[in-house]
Structures are given as C-alpha cells and as structure tokens.
Amino acid sequence: MNTPAAAPTCGIVLVLLSLLAVLQTTTAQKNDIDIYSLTVDSKVSSRFAHTVVTSRVVNRADTLQEATFQMELPKKAFITNFSMIIDGVTYPGNIKDKAAAQEQYAEAVARGQSAGLVKATGRKMEQFQVAVSVAPAAKVTFELVYEELLKRHLGLYELLLKVRPQQLVKHLQMDIHIFEPQGIRFLETESSFLTNELASALTISQNETKAHIRFKPTLSQQQKSPEQEDTVVDGNFIVRYDVNRTLSGGSIQIENGYFVHYFAPEGLPTIPKNVIFVIDKSGSMQGRKIQQTREALIKILDDLSPKDQFNLVSFSREATQWMPSLMPASAENVEKARSYASDIQARGGTNINSAMLMAVQLLDEANRKERLPIGSVSLIILLTDGDPTVGETNPKNIQKNVQDAIGGQYNLFCLGFGFDVSYAFLEKLALDNGGLARRIYEDSDSAVQLQDFYQEVANPLLTAVAFKYPSNAVEEVTQDNFQLLFKGSEMVVAGKLQDQSPDVLSANVSGQLLMQNITFQMEARVAEQEKEFRSPKYIFHGFMERLWAYLTIQQLLEQIVSASDAEKQALETRALGLSLNYSFVTPLTSMVVTKPEGQEESEVAEKPVENGRAVFPSHSIGNRRFRIKETTTVAPSLAPIQAPSVILPLPGQSVDQLCVDIKHSQGPMNLLSDPDQGVEVTGQYEVEKAQFSWIEVTFKNLQLQVRASPEHVVVIRNRRSSVYKWKETLFSVMPGLKMTMDKAGLLLLSSPDRVTIGLLFWDGPGQGLRLLLRDTDRFSSHVSGTLGQFYQDVLWVPPAAADDGKQTLRVQGRDHSATRELKLDYQEEAPGTEISCWSVEL
C-alpha cells in the first residue's frame, strides 16, 4: 500500500478509545479477553501526525469470546489502514468507493462472514469499531493507522489522545515523536489521568528541533490501589506546542519531491474591525442558553479594541438593532451595549433571514456613508440554536438571499448552539461568505466556547493573502489565496516540485495591511531540505506527499459544500481519486475488513455526520461524560463547626495557621499580589452565602490566568481557554508551572521557586470555593493584598488580660482581634477535620 504522508488540515484532537473487552456470555470473567499489549505511536513531522495504535489480546477463557476494537477519531483525521492478525493470518482493510464497499460488505454477510465497515459520513466526528470472535487461548492483533495535520489555534498546535484500556495492561506504552525544522519554541503536556504517583512513568526529552514524549507505566502504577485490578489509565493525554518563527513569518519545507509552506508572521499590528453580532433570542434560547449568551457577549464586548466599530442585532419573530448605525467601541458605547446585552430575553420564533439582511444593511449603510475605515475588516457573527420558523424559512432561499446581499464584501461566521439547529445549513451559509461554522455545545462552559471562538477572529492581521511560486518550479499547488489571516493561526500551502525545478524554491506572499500592500519573500534550498528529512528515524518518511494529498482532499470537500450542482461532480471525482490513491477513509470512501469464515455477526462503524441533529445526548460533549456531584450530609448539631473563608499558614510565627473570616466585602477583592513572584490573586466574596463566587489567579510572567467558579475552572493563556470540571483529575506540565487536580477536586498551581496556590470546591459544611497556600516562605517582601498583608510585618501582641483564648495580631501597624476557635480544615477531604486556630475577621 502506498503510504505517503497525510496532508495538512486543521487541529489535532486524536481521541483513542483503545481496545474494549466486550464479553459474549454472562458467565465470562472480567479479563477473559486480556489486553497484554497496547501501544500508541504518533510521529508528528512538521505538523503532520501519523499515528499507529496496536492492541494485542488473548482469550484466556476456555470458551469462545468476543473482542471489540472501538475508537473515536478527531474531526479531521483520515484512517489510512486497519488490519487484524488472527491465528497468524492477516485480515487487511480495503478502502473502496462507497458503492463498492457496500457491495463487498453485503457479499461477505451473505456468505456468513462478518465484515467490519468504516464509513466517513461527515467531517466532524468519526467512529470506528470492529468485533471478532476469539477461540480459547487464541491471540488477535489489531492495528489502526490514521493521519492528520495539526491546526494552529490561538498560537498552539494540539495533539490529543484518549486512552481507555479498561483493564491493566502488561505492556502499555505511548510514544510521541515531534520533529519541527523551525525549532520547538514551547512544549507542554497535560493528562486527565496522570497523578504524582504516575509522573515517573512520563518522560520528556527535547532539543531545538525534536521532542520525544513517552508514557510507559508499570502494572502496579496502573492500579487504582494494591487491592484493585481496575486501571487509573482512563482519559486524555494532550501535547501542545509551537515553533520558532522568523520576521518573514514563513517556512518552506521540502521532502521527497513535495513542499509545504507554513505562513504565520509575527509582530504585525491588528487591523480594525467592523463587527455585527447577530443574536438569536427566540423561545428555544430560554434559560441557560440565553444566560450564557449574555455572559459571553458582555465579555466579548469588553475585548473590543477602541479602533473597532460594532452593533448588535437580536432576533426572534422580528429583528431589532441596538443602534441605528455602527458605533465606535469607546468605553461609553461598550458600557451601553453591555447593558443592552444583559437585558436580552428569549421568546418567540426564529427569523434568521430578516436578522441577517439587517446586519448586512448596517454595513452597507456605513459603507455608503464612507464610515468604514479604509483597510478595515467587516465581520458578521451569527449565533442561533434552531432552524428558521418565521419569515423566509427555506434554507436555500436564505443562503441565496444572504450571499446576494453580502456580495463578497464581508465575512460571515456562524455559531450553532446545541443540536436543534441544522449545522449543514449554517456551514454552507458561512462558507458561501468567506467564513466558517462552529458548533457550540450545551454545557456549563458554553459561554467560554463562545468567547474562545471570538478570540480566534478578534485580531485580523492581513487581508487578500496570495502565495506565488515560479511557474517552472511547482505544480498541483493547494489553495494559495486566502481572504483573512488572524493572529494565532497559520496558513498552509503544499504542492509538488516539477522534475526540472530550480535548486532554490522561492516564494512571495502578498497581502494588505491597513492601507498598504505588504510582501514577504522567502526561499528554500531543495537539496538541503531533502537531506534534513531523509535521515531521521523518528519521522514518518514520505509524509509530505501524503500531507499534500490530505490537504487537497480537505479543501475539495470544503469546496463541495458551497459548489453548484454542476461543479460538485468534478470536485467529488477528484477527491475520490485522491482518497483511493492514498488510501484515505473520507466522506467518499469506506473501508471493509473481512473476518474469518463462520463469524456471522457483522460489525458496522460509520462516521457520524455533523448535520445539526443530535449526535450525542444532551448531557454529553464528544467523549466527555458528566457525573452527578456527590455531596456529604452532616448531621445537624447545636453549634455546627464551619470552615473559615480562608486558612493561612504563617511562616516564622508561633502559630501554624490563621483562620480568616471575611465579613465585609464590596466587589472584587485583591487577595494577594506579589510582583517579585509575578502572581496576583483576586476574588469576589459573597458575605451572605459565606463563599467566593469566583477566584482568579494570574501569573503575569507566564501570560496565564486561572479562573475558578463553583461550576468549573477556566485556564486562559494567550487568549486561549481550557475548561476543567472539578474532581476530574488533571496533570499539566508547562514551562514555569505545574498544574494538578486530584479526585477530591484540589487544584494545585506550583513551581520550584513560587508559592504554591491551591483552589478547591469544598463539599463539606459551608461548601463553596476555597483558597489554599503552601510554601508561603517564598513570598517576597513586596507581597500585598487583603490576605497578602499577613505576610508583611506581622506581630503578635500579648493580651491586656491573661486570656489564652484571645490575642491581638498587629499587621502593618493595624491591630486585629484574634480568637482561638475550632474550625473545619477544608484542606482535608470533605467533611474535613477539626482544627484549633486563631480566628480573625476582616
């Protein structure tokens, strides 16, 4: 089989539901199907990921058992090969066009054979499953190969693997090799199952251009406890990284007669925006969705640049504009818009057509009056959760009306909230008008998803970007003209070198920046580039040709969405030809795996289509599963002991801990600030509820912010947000910081030279958000804040009367009464333990 490298595409979220042992009879023991080896080998060569998953199983029962290999793939990954080895015989997967695959599948079933079928029916999610009967003592090897180009999203590439063996595995190993000729600027790992006890199973080695991440736990490390046979290895493993960039912003790389050109210039100013937010406020948005939309919109408005112009259009049965024209994003106007957004209520039908035409008219009117700054970018962002029900309701008519009205002048981005909206309708609407569509999942972090999307388009850097290469040097080049380049993203162009191409490949990239044209020039020496990729053993050789094919197919599939009926046939024919030639399972092909004779039951696995209808139940997102929060009930007592607002360890004092109760609070509080440590902790304390509504930790040197609420934790770095639920284990290592969360929900932020800061959603009496501090001797002499003051010039003053239960605490010249009291220590797992501490009220 030809195995050239898969072409570039967007994002990498590799979700592996490794091997699941599915038992055929109710009497079979749990580990009758024993996975004795599971390996994941991912080679990322110049953003292109080639991943091989191999599972080896044996039937340890004395009866026939069934083993099932099941997996979910990332949105843009293409399966390239699958095989089973049973009793020494290899059963390969054959990739065919859909009609031929269905025919072979039907013939296999008719002969009494079982055939596993993989189909790609959409470009968003993909599921693969094959089951096979295993004789007593027999062994089966499953091997799956898939490929994907990592998309740069808000400044980072991400590789996400989900590993769920569901049993202890004697040989469990993940290897991730990354090779980036530009040099690796930043690298971090994160896992939802790693703990401090498992940390030694993870090794990371890195030099200027290479990185190797290995996870190889022993059997004892995989065990939840010595008494249990259950495994702790169950969840996500993520690698994020970025590369070095030159002022030219580009890198041309060449391997085996093909080239790829990456373009992401640094240091460019942001182009001003004219943005219209079109917000669905129909009845179906009632409740949580409209509340989260209001929350997100308010924060997005705060992020507008003073150079931007904006307006809001809300719609139900009718469309309403906030102001009659575009408004400058001044502090005063933003505050007025925030007030308007906070009052948006959901009721009525869904008139998408009128709302979209109103948004276009606002931009047209500003254009006619010459109020759109020369060189600025005009965007329309539509958020809706349902299909049109009022006014024009025919999707094709709406798409035509909007495209005719926009006329190629503005870019439209469509956000589909939940699964009641036709995603295919929104996707075509966006692609027809130079934008893209995105699904917003219904969950506690929906507001964060909305904000995260806005950050992707918040900072346009260039418009009308064109790549040019010598006509005698290259051929079969992928898309080389782009409407917009946004900060934190990357443009990718690939192609084939001609047989007699020059020794040096040169390229010009032109674009418009504000009111001027700008050109970037770069070149690459063919022989040097070929040599760089030829020797390393840790890369997948021949990958660049597959990268080119992969990128070409992805772009053809995108063009098919917005093509006319007459154009679709030619586009589909070319995409199908490439899919078959390079053995890619795409929306136009399927894979059939024929199994041994006599296995009658067939297995069918398809790629679920992202068409806007329910793909997952409403309580789940992708592979994320939500558990009901467990709470501890404490029997009532006459004087229940409560946890204090904050417990502070005081280094160098005669007492170990100080319990601080906040009795007076107005608005956000500066809890801690230490400029020498580069850390700041703020929070909002609700005195009536005796709990924090939020706590925010900012590491200024790392450009990282951690915001905790009772619902979840949001980590923001370089405008990029990651959301974590309480009590979902986390182990993240990045330059300058380690972030861990255990099953009790304790989030620790630590580094060798900093104070350790802990955040916890406390389930015990007086439940709520809590703050923990460790290693407080590392505070500098410049620490300040409501809590930071207790680490500055603290003095215990002997009481006037001999009373062991009372003392005076003098902090920076101010006296506080301290009383010896019993409190619950929330630093211990709920329901906590009683401690005696000095209690101070603020």
TrEMBL record:
| Example of a GO cellular component annotation carried by this entry | extracellular region
MF terms from GO for this chain are: serine-type endopeptidase inhibitor activity
Q: Where is the signal peptide?
A: 1-28
* GO term, biological process aspect, one: acute-phase response
Q: Which PROSITE patterns match?
A: VIT, VWFA
- Source organism per entry reads Rhinolophus ferrumequinum
Q: Which residues form the VWFA domain?
A: 274-457
The Swiss-Prot or TrEMBL record describes its family as follows: Belongs to the ITIH family.
| Annotated compartments | Secreted
* Keywords assigned by UniProt, alphabetized: Glycoprotein, Protease inhibitor, Secreted, Serine protease inhibitor, Signal
Give every VIT domain span: 19-148
Using the record for this protein, list the coiled-coil segments as residue ranges, or answer none: none
Which SMART domains does this chain map to?
A: VIT, VWA
This protein is called Inter-alpha-trypsin inhibitor heavy chain 4
Q: Which domain of life is it from?
A: Eukaryota
